[in-house]
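Subject: sequence -> structure tokens, single chain

Hey, anyone have a minute? Need the predicted structure for the following. Not urgent.
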Amino acid sequence: MRKRHRTEDEAEINITPMLDIVFIMLIFFIVTTSFVREQGLDISRPTQAEEQKQQDEESLPILVRIDQTSMISVNNRRVEPDAVRANLERERAQRPNSPLIVAAHPDSETDSLVRVLDAANVVGITSISVATETQR
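Reply:
Had a minute. Here:
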């Protein structure tokens, strides 16, 4: 039986060129990726100091309530969902520096809340607070 003699030069796989190609592709994808910034509404919760501060008559808030049946009322007047924007425009014309407070019932539909927030954004109201009732 003959034994095979192994030579000192065995074949090795060199992976350095493959790593170079992977890094070049990674750099290509990072450079060509477009980053999209989505628009949204910034909602901030009031602090206790802001709640205790007395408000002037000129800056009384515009109060929008959404009840459990998703009926919308602006300053204690029921309005149709299509008339929310017109009512907010009228209220803002009377009191231009007034903040908007949206008091939504936890069981109301989200569509009603989004409709009010969109209308406020179109009208140009920048100070918007969203409140909910606590369930007991």
